[in-house]
């Protein structure tokens, strides 16, 4: 998959250093993947959930949430938000 953008992962890791390794693991697994649908994605990330048009990934044992839009046809993952669990629960990312 083509991920847009790794920069957002680095910026988040600069603030939350404990997220650096889990985000790198997510990045490498996602980059190597060739998902055609959510079912295939869930083989690698079983806790991922579809929320509206977004796919939500748990990062670092659910301490953080990565919210992405995935275009399976083009093989593109758009990282929209990376949030702490508390910020995710506020729901502001949905708009």
Automatic annotation (TrEMBL):
<dbReference type="InterPro" id="IPR018669">
    <property type="entry name" value="Toxin_HigB"/>
</dbReference>
<protein>
    <submittedName>
        <fullName>Type II toxin-antitoxin system HigB family toxin</fullName>
    </submittedName>
</protein>
<dbReference type="GO" id="GO:0004519">
    <property type="term" value="F:endonuclease activity"/>
</dbReference>
<dbReference type="GO" id="GO:0003723">
    <property type="term" value="F:RNA binding"/>
</dbReference>
<dbReference type="Pfam" id="PF09907">
    <property type="entry name" value="HigB_toxin"/>
</dbReference>
<dbReference type="GO" id="GO:0110001">
    <property type="term" value="C:toxin-antitoxin complex"/>
</dbReference>
């Amino acid at each position: 998959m083509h991920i847009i953008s790794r920069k957002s992962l680095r910026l988040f890791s600069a603030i939350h250093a404990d997220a650096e390794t889990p985000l790198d693991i997510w990045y490498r697994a996602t980059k190597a993947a060739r998902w055609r649908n959510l079912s295939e994605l869930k083989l690698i990330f079983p806790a991922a959930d579809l929320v509206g048009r977004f796919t939500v990934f748990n990062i670092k044992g659910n301490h953080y949430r990565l919210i992405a839009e995935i275009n399976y046809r083009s093989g593109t993952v758009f990282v929209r938000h990376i949030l702490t669990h508390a910020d995710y629960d506020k729901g502001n990312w949905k708009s």
